[in-house]
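Let us practice reading a record.
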Amino acid sequence: MFFKSKHIIFLLALMIFGSCTKENDQPSSAKMMSKSEVYNFISGELIRTNKAFDWNTASDDLIFAAGQHSDAVFSIGYQPNGFIGIKDKIHQINLQEQSWVDTREMIEKMILEYEKTDKTPEGFSVLAPVDKKFPHIYAVIKNKELITKLRSMPEVRFVEPLGYSLEPEVSNRSTSGCSGTPDPNINTSDYTVLTPSSKRPWNFSTHNIPTAWNTAKGQGITICIIDTGAGDSQDNLGSQFASGNSTGRTITKMSTHYSGSLWWQTLDTPHDQCGHGTSMAGLAAAPWSNDGNAVGTAYKANLLTIRAVEDVLINTSNERNGVRDALYIAGDNSNVKIISMSIGSPISSSTVSDGIYYAYNKGKMIFAAAGTSYSWTTWYGVIFPAWMPECIAVTGVKEGTTNTKCSVCHEGAEVDFTVVMERTSNADRNSIGLALTGNVPKYIGGSSCATATTAGVAAMLWSKTPSATRTQVFNALRNTAQFYPNPNSNLGWGRINASAAMSNI
């Protein structure tokens, strides 16, 4: 899920302060904006626009203050003067070409001149090591005039506070979306027992997934799950991944999540410490085994799990870099067809966006969660990166024919598809999937669940017709979805129909 308990204070403040914020009412003065002024402005914009906040619309004052109230590290996107179309060319550029080297060195020299030193008071270099994958510079900036100068330059694509997080002073971000505990009290009507001993989630039938299994199960297709990793104690994502009816496939676990500053990073383990990534990997492709656990949608597909975040919020410097680098890895992996991201943020990141562009340009089909929150909040817009055109945004809805979003799900014009994952009678009875350890499943809800499930269905379609293009797979989902050919203003094409889509690919 996108929001959990730590955000009750945040969302309450968002309601209180956001309703008073007016368009373009960004304070601008010689005095730096306070942390509360930054927070109040951005949270108000979330309510006013009903979509994720974009730093490109922010003033120099706001960007500078947001950086100072976080880790003071700024991400600077660059390009040679006159270069056009980086969004479509980012997978082709060569950062070793002289024009790119000269541009980077020119900006780095300017940063050092404005900052008057090559060392911060803490003893770290102002500039992080050179990024060899993307045209990004990371720097500690304490001079607001430098922000203004950089943003005025044609060689600078963006300047953003890399580590700013829209959170109140007191938070417990380590638990956001994290829950790996099995649920021994799952209602018996919320699953069907499959021979020899596996549990099929109740909502699979709503989308005709069992019927689609008669044609294809995801065989030969690799899904990349960018999330909190995969639990090393969950054998269904380990030694039992290719067991039962799921033989002949592989799982690979990687990490792009670092601890420490950008200057002194240590790569973390790929093993899930949260539980969210394990559940998403399970929903997409857990095995049809014989241990009584929940089966995944594409139970014959291969998996690549990449631990890029600590929890479901992309809101620290390391996490934004981690997600970007995971997208680079998935983009360069010729076996990966589908990327599933049940993670996000109420604030956009050009650093992450460049990773999205890279993977998309490499032909990957990218699914992203529309967002999950509490039912009493006032903001339900689609989060970042799901609102990007390169991503297929998915949200969850309740069972029945009311077309009602789930109690904690976001909706909006950017939504493409929906998945039924909540009982009308009880919002706590959702789909079921893998816990961090053991063979007892757990309930899993929100747009996270809907996204991973849809990614699994796409893998099934692609496995039926491996020569299909990304567009053809999308069209098969769209042309057989609930509202086609007239999309709903908030729920897109609506509920997917796996069986019908299988006949359309």
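A brief commentary: Residues 1-25, 169-175 have pLDDT under 50 and may be disordered.
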